[in-house]
Design goal:
The chain is α+β, with helices and mostly antiparallel strands. Helices cover 50% and strands 15% of the residues.
Length: 445
């Protein structure tokens, strides 16, 4: 029976909840950064540090970019204007004893707009002596005209990568992301688990039509889909059971008129009686095989773990003892879960076909990409590409005769494909380049 567990919140509501929590977490992280981290202070340089660089001496700069000297043919631009820069230029000219007209202070931005940042810079500058409170904030270029007309320019060294402030922000955001990762994983798992269960049920239905119904739980949308899936599975099962029961009933009821025909042909001449008796034998054989096919299709056996390599080896050995030319390559052990009797019939049918139409059978078993592979080669004529799918249809035979000497009634490969697909796999026939045919069965591990 289908479970009636109360469905969870709709998927839309859960997604909105997850998005809202993510936004709240981002807002909380930004708020913590705003109140806990100090404002970023740009690199600033005292006038004495700039003068030391002009003189060829490098001052000790803590957590700031070093100053560099360059000789240029033109004055740096654009020049920074204002009373503060005029005072710095005058102080610099007085210290170096050069005309103010030979000094240019250039840059791309003016005064600091953030009051907090400006307060930090002023506080740090106020700790210096009164003569060393003139500062320049990066980026800037201070140039002095030389006697030959060139310009000696001092500026902060260009850098690549993150600043100290940016590194702190990156660290905080990384830590907050790590803190949110487990919560995000739990939510994502909660949202995707019902979908994964739904996918597993669909895959299980392909392997076993009689699988139990899917349990209805999770978001409301998943619950609706699960109920529709269960109803579809029930309809498919009833459809298959009705059709197979009908075929079985027809095949069973045909035995009664066949029995009457046997009595009636007794009065016929000997030569005619033999021909009619052969046709009746063939019809009864077809009915028996059809009933066996229907019985196997409607009553799947119990799935148990089995070692596929040993199964193939034992069948090859049994057929070799009865005179058939069969051999098997000893390879890896491949274990899967399946119906032992059905898989035994699958391999047996393929081996018999290989011996019957190709003279001999060479089998091998190996695993590849999560699947067990059984390959059986023969040295027969192969099949035309146009018949590669038709040969799996029930009662289809490329050779029109229905005698046992030339192949039977055409249910062997239909049984093979039915068993393979019932286990979630498939079977194909491949013509080899050097001649012969390879029957390849793929079964999921």
């Amino acid at each position: 029976m289908t479970s009636t567990r109360r469905p969870g919140a709709p998927l839309l509501v859960q997604l909105l909840t997850l998005t809202g929590l993510a936004l709240v977490a981002a807002w909380a992280t930004s708020t913590l950064l705003l109140f806990l981290l100090p404002p970023p202070a740009p690199d600033f340089y005292r006038l004495s540090e700039i003068e030391s660089t002009f003189a060829g001496r490098q001052s000790g700069l803590n957590e700031r970019r070093p100053l560099i000297r360059q000789v240029r043919t033109e004055a740096p631009a654009p020049e920074l204007k204002g009373a503060a820069f005029a005072a710095i230029r005058a102080k610099f000219a007085a210290n170096l004893k050069i005309p103010e007209t030979d000094i240019v202070i250039a840059g791309e931005r003016g005064p600091i707009s953030d009051r907090n940042v400006g307060r930090v810079v002023r506080d740090r500058a106020s700790r210096s002596s009164a003569d060393d409170q003139h500062i320049l904030i990066a980026p800037f270029r201070l140039g002095v005209r030389q006697a030959d007309g060139s310009w000696l320019v001092v500026q902060p060294k260009p850098t690549f990568g993150l600043t100290t402030w940016q590194k702190r922000l990156a660290l905080w955001f990384s830590l907050s992301a790590l803190a949110m990762a487990p919560i995000t994983w739990l939510f994502a798992r909660r949202l995707t688990k019902p979908i994964q269960v739904f996918a597993d049920a669909a895959e299980r239905l392909g392997r076993d039509p009689g699988a139990p119904p899917l349990e209805v739980h999770g978001p409301a949308e998943i619950g609706v889909a699960a109920r529709a899936f269960n109803e579809m599975q029930g309809r498919l099962r009833r459809y298959v059971e009705d059709r197979t029961a009908m075929v079985g009933a027809i095949a069973h009821d045909l035995r009664t008129p066949l029995t009457r025909l046997r009595f009636r042909i007794e009065s016929l001449p000997e030569d005619q009686r033999r021909k009619y008796a052969a046709d009746l034998d063939q019809m009864e054989e077809m009915i028996a095989d059809t009933l066996a096919f229907v019985r196997d299709a409607t009553r799947p056996g119990e799935r148990t773990p089995l070692e596929l390599s040993s199964l193939v080896e034992s069948l090859c050995d049994e057929m070799a003892e009865t005179g058939s030319c069969t051999e098997v390559e000893r390879g890896e052990k491949v274990i899967l879960e399946g119906d032992p009797m059905a898989l035994r019939r699958l391999v047996s049918n393929l081996l018999e076909n290989a011996v019957k139409f190709g003279g001999q059978a060479r089998a091998r078993v190996f695993s590849d990409a999560g699947s067990a592979i059984v390959e059986i080669d023969d040295d027969g004529p192969g099949i035309p590409p146009a018949d590669s799918e038709k040969v799996f249809e029930p009662f289809y035979r490329r050779e029109p005769s229905r005698s046992r000497e030339t192949g039977g009634i055409g249910l062997g490969l239909a049984v093979v494909r039915s068993i393979a697909r019932g286990h979630g796999g498939d079977v194909s026939l491949i013509n080899r380049a050097g001649g012969g045919l390879t029957a390849r069965v793929q079964l999921p591990l």
